[in-house]
Amino acid sequence: MEEIVNRVANSGLLVLDLEDFFPIKTVVFPVESLIDGPVLREKEFRAALAAWDITPFQNAVVSVTTDEQWIVPLWLPALVSAHLAKVALFVLWGSSENLIEAYYADVVSRLSITPYRGQTVLLKGCSTKPVPESAYAAMAFRLAPHVKSLMYGEACSTVPLCKNK
Question: Does the pLDDT value for residue 9 go beyond 80?
């Protein structure tokens, strides 16, 4: 019987699967829950923030929202974000509709491209999780100038994206 050889494993092809970065936990947090009434007073808000249990946000991707009718001082998003930075993976101030897209933009911008320099890279498609299209576009843009070749899809069926000399 002839031995089965995994040609993909022996090809030197580096597979980058953006699904690997999909957050395990996302949380939408209305900041009004820390404020007593529609008027925010800094001293009281800081006290509420200090007493706030942030353990539910551990390793979460968080969207902090506010009621459109509330007047929010410019320092409030920065203060809440700095507080959540102790435990959260990512914080977006605003609509949860853009949360995963903004998170992936951050992931792509922070990902080290060093392991992919001069390599043949497959940007794995066909994910089972809702990885935004913008993440694939951003990753291709980031990698294209640095890789030997970049492809999209699965190892058995790829779409060439770019080749460099």
Answer: no
Query: Which residue is associated with the tokens 């066909």?
Result: 126
Query: What beta strand segments (E) does the chain contain?
Result: 14-16, 26-30, 61-65, 90-93, 120-124, 149-154, 157-163
What is the C-alpha separation between 142 and 110, in angstroms, rounded? 11
- The yes-or-no verdict on residue 6 having pLDDT over 60 is no
Give 106-131 pLDDT, tens digit per residue.
999 999 999 999 999 999 988 889 99
Cβ neighbours of residue 43 closer than 8 Å, sequence gap 6 or more:
none
How buried is 121 (Cβ within 10 angstroms: 0-12 exposed, 13-18 middle, 19+ buried)? buried
Per the listing, tokens 């404020």 go with 35
